[in-house]
Structure formats: structure tokens, C-alpha cells
Amino acid sequence: MKMVNSFPLVTIGVLTYNSEKYVIETLESIKSQTYLNIELIISDDCSCDYTVDRCSEWIEKNRGYFVNVLILTVKTNTGTAGNCNRVLAKSNGKWLKFLGADDLLSPSAIENYVRYVTQNSNVYACFAEDIHFVGNILENKFFMMLWT
Question: What is the pLDDT of residues 55-107, one digit of tens each?
């Protein structure tokens, strides 16, 4: 695993299950991050569509954007907790960001989170605003973004 810079490594764990319809948009939003020290771990929870194939093809073309890339698969569905636990077990990052395979990150999201936590030494978790797109309605919610 290569070190991009002296900034902390951030692991982005993408949780997939039958996500072939949106996962490439999700991965593109991760590739577009302005922060460069990112490890990408995709954990698939026994999809029965082409999610893993689509992710594998995308990784072959885009591996160079990341410090490290893994795809984790299982033979039986374990649910969200199992999917998260697989990412956590393989993560090398100081910070971890879980992302659903149908979610997007704004281009400077990880850079902004890391800037905030490095400027505030007593931070152990970071929360951020989330915007949900439901038809033509925007609904704001809060959720956990990063933690060590």
C-alpha cells in the first residue's frame, strides 16, 4: 500500500447488495474526491445481479486513484452489520467512511471532513449534513460520516 501524502489515510467502505444500477455513480463520486489519501473497500453482501462484475471492471480502469482497493464478497447474505464488519476488519485507514452503493459524495467531502478533524484534536467522530433526493423533494437529515 502506497502513502500518497502525510495526511491521514481515509478508508471509504462501499456497502453493496444488488446495486448494479447505481454503484458506478457512487464509485465515480469517490474517484472525484479532492482528497487523495483514500483506500477503497467494496463489500458485497451476496448480490445476485451484476454488482460485483461492474465494480471489478470499474476498479481495473480506476485503481490508480486510490492507495489501496479491495472487493470483499461472501457466499451468503449477512445483512448490513456483516457488510460493515467486513469493511472494518480490512480497513487500514485512520478514519472510516461508510457509503451506501446508491449514495454520492460531493467532490470535497472527504477533504472537508479530514480538515475539520485534524484541526480539532479532540474529535473522535464527525457528523455532516446529508441531502436526500426523493423525486423532486429535497429532505435534509443528519448522519454519522467518519469515525476512528
Answer: 999 999 999 999 999 999 999 999 999 999 999 999 999 999 999 999 999 99
The model carries a pTM of 0.86
Q: Which three cell numbers stand for residue 72?
A: 470483499
Q: What does the alpha-carbon distance between residue 36 and residue 20 come to, in Å, rounded to a whole number?
A: 26
Residue 75 DSSP class: S
Grid coordinates standing for 135? Answer: 423525486
Sign of the dihedral defined by the CA atoms of residues 104, 39, 146, 78, in that order: positive
Separation CA 121–CA 100 (nearest Å)? 28
Any idea what DSSP says for residue 102?
A: T
Question: Exposed/middle/buried for 66, CB within 10 Å: 0-12, 13-18, 19+?
Answer: buried
